[in-house]
Protein backbone atom coordinates (compact mmCIF):
# COMPACT_ATOMS: atom_id res chain seq x y z
CA UNK A 1 0.00 0.00 0.00
CA UNK A 2 1.20 3.50 -0.74
CA UNK A 3 1.11 6.22 1.91
CA UNK A 4 1.32 9.93 1.26
CA UNK A 5 3.67 11.52 3.75
CA UNK A 6 4.15 15.28 4.14
CA UNK A 7 7.69 16.08 5.22
CA UNK A 8 8.31 19.33 7.11
CA UNK A 9 12.00 19.25 7.96
CA UNK A 10 11.90 22.72 9.55
CA UNK A 11 14.82 24.50 11.18
CA UNK A 12 18.21 23.91 12.74
CA UNK A 13 18.91 20.22 13.14
CA UNK A 14 15.39 19.40 11.82
CA UNK A 15 16.51 18.79 8.20
CA UNK A 16 19.54 16.76 9.35
CA UNK A 17 17.60 14.35 11.52
CA UNK A 18 14.59 14.16 9.20
CA UNK A 19 16.81 13.10 6.31
CA UNK A 20 17.74 10.03 8.36
CA UNK A 21 14.10 9.34 9.24
CA UNK A 22 13.19 9.41 5.56
CA UNK A 23 16.21 7.26 4.75
CA UNK A 24 15.03 4.63 7.22
CA UNK A 25 11.45 4.66 5.89
CA UNK A 26 12.76 4.28 2.36
CA UNK A 27 14.82 1.30 3.50
CA UNK A 28 11.68 -0.26 4.98
CA UNK A 29 9.84 0.03 1.68
CA UNK A 30 12.80 -1.39 -0.20
CA UNK A 31 12.82 -4.43 2.05
CA UNK A 32 9.04 -4.77 2.09
CA UNK A 33 7.66 -3.58 -1.27
CA UNK A 34 4.11 -3.90 0.12
CA UNK A 35 4.83 -0.66 1.98
CA UNK A 36 5.34 2.36 -0.25
CA UNK A 37 5.84 5.99 0.72
CA UNK A 38 5.12 8.99 -1.42
CA UNK A 39 7.00 11.88 0.22
CA UNK A 40 6.23 15.54 -0.43
CA UNK A 41 8.62 18.08 1.08
CA UNK A 42 7.41 21.43 2.39
CA UNK A 43 9.98 24.21 2.92
CA UNK A 44 8.13 25.74 5.88
CA UNK A 45 9.73 27.09 9.02
CA UNK A 46 11.80 30.06 10.12
CA UNK A 47 13.74 30.51 6.88
CA UNK A 48 10.40 30.63 5.06
CA UNK A 49 9.25 33.17 7.65
CA UNK A 50 12.21 35.44 6.93
CA UNK A 51 11.40 35.39 3.20
CA UNK A 52 7.62 35.49 3.30
CA UNK A 53 6.70 36.86 6.73
CA UNK A 54 4.83 33.69 7.67
CA UNK A 55 5.73 30.22 8.85
CA UNK A 56 3.77 28.35 6.16
CA UNK A 57 1.61 29.01 3.10
CA UNK A 58 -1.76 30.62 3.79
CA UNK A 59 -3.49 27.49 2.57
CA UNK A 60 -0.90 25.24 4.29
CA UNK A 61 -3.50 23.38 6.31
CA UNK A 62 -5.53 22.69 3.16
CA UNK A 63 -2.39 21.37 1.44
CA UNK A 64 -1.63 19.02 4.32
CA UNK A 65 -5.17 17.69 4.70
CA UNK A 66 -4.82 15.15 1.88
CA UNK A 67 -1.82 13.37 3.48
CA UNK A 68 -1.85 10.14 5.48
CA UNK A 69 0.73 11.47 7.92
CA UNK A 70 3.06 14.40 8.58
CA UNK A 71 6.70 13.80 9.45
CA UNK A 72 8.20 16.83 11.17
CA UNK A 73 11.77 17.73 12.17
CA UNK A 74 11.90 20.79 14.41
CA UNK A 75 10.71 24.36 14.21
CA UNK A 76 12.07 27.50 15.80
CA UNK A 77 15.24 29.52 15.35
CA UNK A 78 16.86 32.57 16.95
CA UNK A 79 15.46 35.67 15.26
CA UNK A 80 11.89 34.43 15.14
CA UNK A 81 10.01 34.73 18.44
CA UNK A 82 9.25 31.28 19.87
CA UNK A 83 5.55 32.00 20.26
CA UNK A 84 5.33 32.71 16.51
CA UNK A 85 7.30 29.69 15.30
CA UNK A 86 5.42 27.41 17.67
CA UNK A 87 1.89 28.77 17.28
CA UNK A 88 1.94 29.51 13.55
CA UNK A 89 3.15 26.10 12.48
CA UNK A 90 3.20 23.33 15.06
CA UNK A 91 0.23 24.29 17.19
CA UNK A 92 -1.93 25.30 14.24
CA UNK A 93 -1.37 21.83 12.72
CA UNK A 94 -2.12 20.05 16.02
CA UNK A 95 -5.32 22.02 16.46
CA UNK A 96 -6.56 22.09 12.85
CA UNK A 97 -6.20 18.34 12.56
CA UNK A 98 -7.58 17.68 16.02
CA UNK A 99 -4.46 15.76 17.02
CA UNK A 100 -5.68 15.56 20.55
CA UNK A 101 -3.49 12.65 21.66
CA UNK A 102 0.20 13.23 22.18
CA UNK A 103 1.88 9.86 22.72
CA UNK A 104 5.38 9.98 24.17
CA UNK A 105 7.15 6.74 24.98
CA UNK A 106 9.46 7.03 28.00
CA UNK A 107 11.22 3.73 27.64
CA UNK A 108 14.79 3.13 28.70
CA UNK A 109 16.35 0.86 26.12
CA UNK A 110 19.26 -1.41 26.97
CA UNK A 111 22.46 0.49 26.42
CA UNK A 112 20.90 3.94 26.81
CA UNK A 113 22.40 6.20 29.48
CA UNK A 114 20.29 6.69 32.60
CA UNK A 115 21.16 9.25 35.29
CA UNK A 116 19.19 7.35 37.96
CA UNK A 117 21.37 5.04 40.03
CA UNK A 118 20.28 1.43 40.11
CA UNK A 119 17.53 1.79 37.51
CA UNK A 120 17.51 -0.37 34.42
CA UNK A 121 15.38 -0.97 31.35
CA UNK A 122 12.80 -2.96 33.38
CA UNK A 123 12.18 0.01 35.66
CA UNK A 124 11.54 2.72 33.10
CA UNK A 125 8.86 1.80 30.61
CA UNK A 126 6.01 4.27 30.49
CA UNK A 127 3.76 5.68 27.84
CA UNK A 128 2.70 9.27 28.36
CA UNK A 129 -0.67 10.25 26.93
CA UNK A 130 -0.68 14.03 26.94
CA UNK A 131 -3.76 16.09 26.09
CA UNK A 132 -2.73 18.06 23.04
CA UNK A 133 -5.39 20.57 22.01
CA UNK A 134 -6.68 22.47 25.05
CA UNK A 135 -5.86 22.79 28.74
CA UNK A 136 -3.22 25.32 29.70
CA UNK A 137 -2.17 25.72 26.04
CA UNK A 138 -5.62 26.75 24.79
CA UNK A 139 -4.21 30.15 23.86
CA UNK A 140 -6.74 32.35 25.64
CA UNK A 141 -5.83 35.20 27.87
CA UNK A 142 -5.68 38.96 28.10
CA UNK A 143 -3.76 41.94 29.33
CA UNK A 144 -5.97 43.05 32.18
CA UNK A 145 -3.97 46.19 32.98
CA UNK A 146 -1.32 47.62 30.69
CA UNK A 147 -0.18 50.56 32.79
CA UNK A 148 3.39 50.19 33.99
CA UNK A 149 4.53 49.15 36.52
CA UNK A 150 1.29 47.45 37.53
CA UNK A 151 0.58 45.32 34.49
CA UNK A 152 -1.60 42.28 35.02
CA UNK A 153 -2.05 39.48 32.54
CA UNK A 154 -4.35 36.51 32.56
CA UNK A 155 -3.72 33.18 30.85
CA UNK A 156 -6.76 30.96 30.84
CA UNK A 157 -6.77 27.19 30.75
CA UNK A 158 -9.67 25.49 28.99
CA UNK A 159 -10.89 22.06 30.01
CA UNK A 160 -13.95 20.71 28.20
CA UNK A 161 -15.79 17.53 29.10
CA UNK A 162 -15.34 16.19 25.58
CA UNK A 163 -11.65 17.12 25.63
CA UNK A 164 -10.91 15.48 28.98
CA UNK A 165 -13.08 12.46 28.41
CA UNK A 166 -11.62 11.51 25.07
CA UNK A 167 -7.99 11.68 26.19
CA UNK A 168 -8.67 9.77 29.40
CA UNK A 169 -10.66 7.18 27.45
CA UNK A 170 -7.79 6.81 24.96
CA UNK A 171 -5.47 6.01 27.88
CA UNK A 172 -7.89 3.43 29.27
CA UNK A 173 -8.38 1.76 25.89
CA UNK A 174 -4.61 1.45 25.60
CA UNK A 175 -4.38 0.16 29.17
CA UNK A 176 -6.98 -2.50 28.43
CA UNK A 177 -5.29 -3.51 25.18
CA UNK A 178 -1.80 -3.69 26.64
CA UNK A 179 -2.84 -4.89 30.12
CA UNK A 180 -1.03 -1.99 31.77
CA UNK A 181 -2.07 0.37 34.55
CA UNK A 182 -3.30 3.92 33.92
CA UNK A 183 -2.10 6.77 36.14
CA UNK A 184 -3.74 10.18 36.15
CA UNK A 185 -1.59 13.21 36.95
CA UNK A 186 -3.39 16.38 38.03
CA UNK A 187 -3.30 19.09 40.70
CA UNK A 188 -6.76 19.51 42.18
CA UNK A 189 -5.54 20.92 45.48
CA UNK A 190 -4.28 24.10 43.83
CA UNK A 191 -6.13 24.30 40.51
CA UNK A 192 -9.53 24.25 42.10
CA UNK A 193 -11.66 24.30 38.95
CA UNK A 194 -9.85 22.68 36.06
CA UNK A 195 -8.18 19.84 37.91
CA UNK A 196 -11.17 19.09 40.12
CA UNK A 197 -13.10 18.63 36.87
CA UNK A 198 -10.32 16.46 35.39
CA UNK A 199 -10.31 14.22 38.48
CA UNK A 200 -14.11 13.85 38.33
CA UNK A 201 -13.99 12.75 34.73
CA UNK A 202 -11.11 10.35 35.40
CA UNK A 203 -13.22 8.71 38.15
CA UNK A 204 -16.21 8.39 35.83
CA UNK A 205 -14.26 6.84 32.97
CA UNK A 206 -12.38 4.57 35.39
CA UNK A 207 -15.66 2.88 36.35
CA UNK A 208 -16.10 1.65 32.80
CA UNK A 209 -12.75 -0.14 32.93
CA UNK A 210 -12.77 -2.31 36.07
CA UNK A 211 -10.12 -4.55 34.45
CA UNK A 212 -7.58 -1.71 34.30
CA UNK A 213 -5.50 -0.85 37.40
CA UNK A 214 -5.30 2.85 38.17
CA UNK A 215 -3.45 5.40 40.27
CA UNK A 216 -3.66 9.18 40.68
CA UNK A 217 -0.93 11.60 41.71
CA UNK A 218 -0.52 15.31 42.09
CA UNK A 219 1.91 16.59 39.49
CA UNK A 220 4.55 17.57 42.04
CA UNK A 221 4.48 14.11 43.59
CA UNK A 222 4.54 12.54 40.14
CA UNK A 223 7.70 14.51 39.25
CA UNK A 224 9.40 13.20 42.37
CA UNK A 225 8.26 9.62 41.88
CA UNK A 226 9.38 9.53 38.27
CA UNK A 227 12.89 9.99 39.62
CA UNK A 228 12.72 7.88 42.77
CA UNK A 229 10.33 5.10 41.70
CA UNK A 230 9.80 5.24 37.93
CA UNK A 231 8.68 1.60 37.96
CA UNK A 232 5.35 2.76 39.41
CA UNK A 233 4.29 4.26 36.08
CA UNK A 234 2.99 2.44 33.02
CA UNK A 235 0.46 4.49 31.06
CA UNK A 236 0.21 8.07 32.31
CA UNK A 237 -2.56 10.44 31.22
CA UNK A 238 -2.27 14.14 31.92
CA UNK A 239 -2.98 17.66 30.74
CA UNK A 240 -1.12 19.61 28.07
CA UNK A 241 1.23 21.60 30.34
CA UNK A 242 1.94 18.84 32.84
CA UNK A 243 2.56 16.40 29.99
CA UNK A 244 4.97 18.80 28.33
CA UNK A 245 7.04 19.22 31.46
CA UNK A 246 6.97 15.63 32.69
CA UNK A 247 7.92 14.21 29.31
CA UNK A 248 11.09 16.33 29.25
CA UNK A 249 11.86 14.87 32.66
CA UNK A 250 11.02 11.50 31.15
CA UNK A 251 13.39 12.12 28.24
CA UNK A 252 16.16 12.89 30.70
CA UNK A 253 15.75 9.57 32.56
CA UNK A 254 15.38 7.53 29.37
CA UNK A 255 18.52 8.43 27.44
CA UNK A 256 18.21 12.14 26.73
CA UNK A 257 16.66 14.45 24.14
CA UNK A 258 18.40 12.63 21.31
CA UNK A 259 16.18 9.59 21.94
CA UNK A 260 12.81 11.16 22.75
CA UNK A 261 9.99 10.79 20.23
CA UNK A 262 6.39 11.89 20.04
CA UNK A 263 3.28 11.26 17.98
CA UNK A 264 0.41 13.71 17.62
CA UNK A 265 -2.55 11.54 16.83
CA UNK A 266 -6.01 12.07 15.49
CA UNK A 267 -7.13 8.56 16.46
CA UNK A 268 -10.30 8.74 14.38
CA UNK A 269 -8.11 9.21 11.28
CA UNK A 270 -10.34 11.97 10.03
CA UNK A 271 -7.22 14.11 9.59
CA UNK A 272 -3.50 13.40 9.24
CA UNK A 273 -1.49 12.63 12.37
CA UNK A 274 1.98 14.07 12.92
CA UNK A 275 5.19 12.38 14.06
CA UNK A 276 8.22 14.25 15.41
CA UNK A 277 11.23 14.02 17.68
CA UNK A 278 10.35 16.09 20.75
CA UNK A 279 13.60 18.04 20.80
CA UNK A 280 13.87 21.50 19.33
CA UNK A 281 15.96 22.86 16.49
CA UNK A 282 19.09 22.97 18.73
CA UNK A 283 20.86 25.90 17.00
CA UNK A 284 23.98 25.22 19.08
CA UNK A 285 24.72 22.03 17.15
CA UNK A 286 22.93 22.70 13.82
CA UNK A 287 24.75 22.19 10.53
CA UNK A 288 27.52 20.05 12.01
CA UNK A 289 26.13 16.57 11.34
CA UNK A 290 26.35 15.72 15.03
CA UNK A 291 22.64 15.72 15.92
CA UNK A 292 21.30 12.39 17.09
CA UNK A 293 18.72 11.11 14.58
CA UNK A 294 17.51 8.23 16.80
CA UNK A 295 14.60 10.23 18.26
CA UNK A 296 13.46 10.78 14.67
CA UNK A 297 13.88 7.08 13.89
CA UNK A 298 11.77 6.33 16.98
CA UNK A 299 9.06 8.69 15.72
CA UNK A 300 9.24 6.91 12.34
CA UNK A 301 8.56 3.74 14.32
CA UNK A 302 5.45 5.38 15.80
CA UNK A 303 4.42 6.38 12.26
CA UNK A 304 4.77 2.78 11.05
CA UNK A 305 2.73 1.49 14.01
CA UNK A 306 -0.02 4.01 13.30
CA UNK A 307 -0.13 3.10 9.61
CA UNK A 308 -0.64 -0.54 10.58
CA UNK A 309 2.86 -2.05 10.53
CA UNK A 310 3.59 -2.99 14.17
CA UNK A 311 6.30 -5.50 13.24
CA UNK A 312 8.22 -2.84 11.38
CA UNK A 313 7.69 -0.43 14.26
CA UNK A 314 9.30 -3.00 16.54
CA UNK A 315 12.19 -3.65 14.16
CA UNK A 316 13.08 0.05 14.22
CA UNK A 317 13.15 0.04 18.05
CA UNK A 318 15.28 -3.12 17.94
CA UNK A 319 17.67 -1.33 15.59
CA UNK A 320 17.97 1.63 17.99
CA UNK A 321 18.58 -0.71 20.93
CA UNK A 322 21.16 -2.65 18.93
CA UNK A 323 23.09 0.56 18.21
CA UNK A 324 22.93 1.57 21.87
CA UNK A 325 24.12 -1.80 23.17
CA UNK A 326 26.84 -2.08 20.56
CA UNK A 327 27.95 1.50 21.25
CA UNK A 328 30.00 1.81 18.06
CA UNK A 329 27.85 4.10 15.93
CA UNK A 330 26.47 6.85 18.15
CA UNK A 331 26.51 10.64 18.04
CA UNK A 332 28.46 12.77 20.57
CA UNK A 333 25.44 13.28 22.89
CA UNK A 334 25.68 9.51 23.52
CA UNK A 335 29.46 9.64 23.87
CA UNK A 336 30.07 8.44 20.34
CA UNK A 337 31.84 10.02 17.39
CA UNK A 338 29.57 9.04 14.48
CA UNK A 339 27.84 11.58 12.27
CA UNK A 340 24.08 11.97 11.97
CA UNK A 341 24.06 10.23 8.64
CA UNK A 342 26.33 7.37 9.79
CA UNK A 343 23.81 6.61 12.53
CA UNK A 344 21.00 6.54 9.93
CA UNK A 345 23.10 4.21 7.77
CA UNK A 346 23.70 1.90 10.75
CA UNK A 347 19.96 1.67 11.40
CA UNK A 348 19.41 0.74 7.75
CA UNK A 349 22.22 -1.84 7.88
CA UNK A 350 20.63 -3.45 10.95
CA UNK A 351 17.24 -3.62 9.23
CA UNK A 352 18.78 -5.20 6.16
CA UNK A 353 20.72 -7.73 8.20
CA UNK A 354 17.73 -8.69 10.34
CA UNK A 355 14.93 -9.13 7.83
P1 LIG B 1 13.04 24.30 21.98
O1 LIG B 1 13.12 25.77 22.18
O2 LIG B 1 12.00 23.88 21.00
O3 LIG B 1 12.99 23.53 23.26
P2 LIG B 1 15.88 24.00 21.67
O4 LIG B 1 16.58 24.49 20.50
O5 LIG B 1 16.04 24.63 23.00
O6 LIG B 1 14.38 23.88 21.26
P3 LIG B 1 15.94 21.37 22.81
O7 LIG B 1 15.28 20.33 22.11
O8 LIG B 1 15.24 21.91 23.96
O9 LIG B 1 16.35 22.48 21.79
O10 LIG B 1 17.36 20.82 23.18
C1 LIG B 1 18.22 21.42 24.14
C2 LIG B 1 19.62 21.00 23.83
O11 LIG B 1 19.74 19.58 23.81
C3 LIG B 1 20.06 21.45 22.45
O12 LIG B 1 20.50 22.75 22.47
C4 LIG B 1 21.11 20.42 22.09
O13 LIG B 1 22.34 20.79 22.60
C5 LIG B 1 20.61 19.16 22.76
N1 LIG B 1 19.87 18.33 21.78
C6 LIG B 1 18.56 18.39 21.47
N2 LIG B 1 18.23 17.51 20.52
C7 LIG B 1 19.37 16.85 20.21
C8 LIG B 1 19.70 15.80 19.28
N3 LIG B 1 18.79 15.26 18.47
N4 LIG B 1 20.97 15.38 19.24
C9 LIG B 1 21.91 15.91 20.04
N5 LIG B 1 21.67 16.87 20.92
C10 LIG B 1 20.41 17.36 21.02
MG1 LIG C 1 14.55 23.78 24.79
Automatic annotation (TrEMBL):
Tell me one GO biological process term: L-leucine biosynthetic process
Catalysed conversion reaction: (R)-malate + NAD(+) = pyruvate + CO2 + NADH
Q: What Pfam families would the database entry show? A: Iso_dh
What keywords were assigned to this record?
Amino-acid biosynthesis, Branched-chain amino acid biosynthesis, Leucine biosynthesis, Magnesium, Manganese, Metal-binding, NAD, Oxidoreductase
The UniProt entry, under SMART domains, shows: Iso_dh
* Transcription regulation among keywords: no
Keyword Iron-sulfur on entry: no
The source's domain of life comes to Bacteria
Provide the GO MF annotations for this entry.
3-isopropylmalate dehydrogenase activity; D-malate dehydrogenase (decarboxylating) (NAD+) activity; magnesium ion binding; NAD binding
Please name the top-level EC class of this enzyme: oxidoreductase
Cofactors that this protein relies on: Mg(2+); Mn(2+)
The EC number(s) this enzyme carries:
1.1.1.83, 1.1.1.85
List, alphabetically, the InterPro entries matched. Answer: ICDH/IPMDH, IsoCit/isopropylmalate_DH_CS, IsoPropMal-DH-like_dom, TTC_DH
User: Which protein family is it in?
Assistant: Belongs to the isocitrate and isopropylmalate dehydrogenases family. LeuB type 1 subfamily.
Record-given protein name: 3-IPM-DH
Provide the species name.
Answer: Alitibacter langaaensis DSM 22999
Amino acid sequence: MSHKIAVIAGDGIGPEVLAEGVKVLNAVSKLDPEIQFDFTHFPWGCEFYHKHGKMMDDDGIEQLRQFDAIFLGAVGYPGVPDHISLWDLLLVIRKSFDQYVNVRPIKLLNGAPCPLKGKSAQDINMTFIRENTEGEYAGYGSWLYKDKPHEVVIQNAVFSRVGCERIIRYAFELGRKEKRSVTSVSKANALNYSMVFWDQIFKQVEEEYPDVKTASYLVDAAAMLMVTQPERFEIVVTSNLFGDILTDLGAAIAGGMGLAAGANLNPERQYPSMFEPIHGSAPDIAGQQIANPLATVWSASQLLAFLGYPQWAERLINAIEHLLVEGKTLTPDLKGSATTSEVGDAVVAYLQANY
